[in-house]
Amino acid sequence: METLSPGYWQEQNLELGTLAPLEEAMSSTVWSSPDMLASQDSQPWTSDETVVAGGTVVLKCQVKDHEDSSLQWSNPAQQTLYFGEKRALRDNRIQLVRSTPHELSISISNVALADEGEYTCSIFTMPVRTAKSLVTVLGEPTRIQEDPNGKTFTVSSSVTFQVTREDDGADIVCSVNHESLKGADRSTAQRIEVLYTPTAKIRPDPPHPREGQKLLLHCEGRGNPAPQQYLWEKEGSVPPLKMTQESALIFPFLNKSDSGTYGCTATSNMGSYKAYYTLNVNDPSPVPSSSSTYHAIIGGIVAFIVFLLLVLLIFLGHYLIRHKGTYLTHEAKGSDDAPDADTAIINAEGGQSGGDDKKEYFI
User: Fold this and answer.
1) pLDDT tens, position by position, 27-77
2) What angle do CA 192, 194, 198 make, to 5 degrees?
3) Where does the sequence pass through the membrane (predicted)?
4) What is the CATH number of domain 44-138?
């Protein structure tokens, strides 16, 4: 490590801790005004806090109008710490300082880097209102050594924290400041590599396979190091289907007998993980597409219009036939009373039958 004057560690892209000069710990508490957070009296407000590792931090949340509701504190993992005066998380480091309808204050002792993050104060009104408090944890040099000349010092600092797979590839930055640097920081970065067991999931291509199609089952493994071997199995089938460095299982021509549950075991030097996929081979009939659905809708509209035109033509023809029948009835008036066909013809031409006059009408 480069020999520099008193400095600090700063962590990037991690939720575990940010270390800064000790001088900042004494005067870095910044209170936010309730008027800045919300205009409503029921909006809670709190403050950002900075604490030295191993020390105690107090989180205070206040509200002007509680609307008969209690305040609640939760940690960066969204675990409830206190709801009113009731403890929710079993951590003896967290203690209740003050609980009133207008204030909820708690303390966290023996603070570690893992405690750094954004804490949330909530009040369960309608709607629920929240305020955030960012807690920054500072570290201090672990070793100071005076050089033989008595004029320079070597300051060493170390940091220890638990890592997860999400921390793989994160940068840890060690920074120092000194009056000789005239306000500029000197820093160096170290990218950490986290080894972890693999995970896997199976993705079918195409997503909805049908009988007769070609199917690829992709076993997507993730880990550090990356999985080097994939073992494919089918439940109820012995021996295993395939052991290969390739992650895909290929079905050139699907049929009903391929249906079943398939397992893929992804293996690396850190361990193994098994994923499952249930394959149901559907009938080869095509799946209706959006374009065919659109054409079906258009066809239905056209058929409906044709049906309306046919109905209109039928009514029009019926109307014309009725008017033609009325004309013939008036022209042959008198034939209704004729005893026989000859008399009907005579009557239609203006003759008489039985002494009754018959009249002819022209329309």
Assistant:
1) 344 444 544 444 467 899 999 999 988 899 999 999 998 888 889 999 998
2) 150
3) 294-321
4) 2.60.40.10
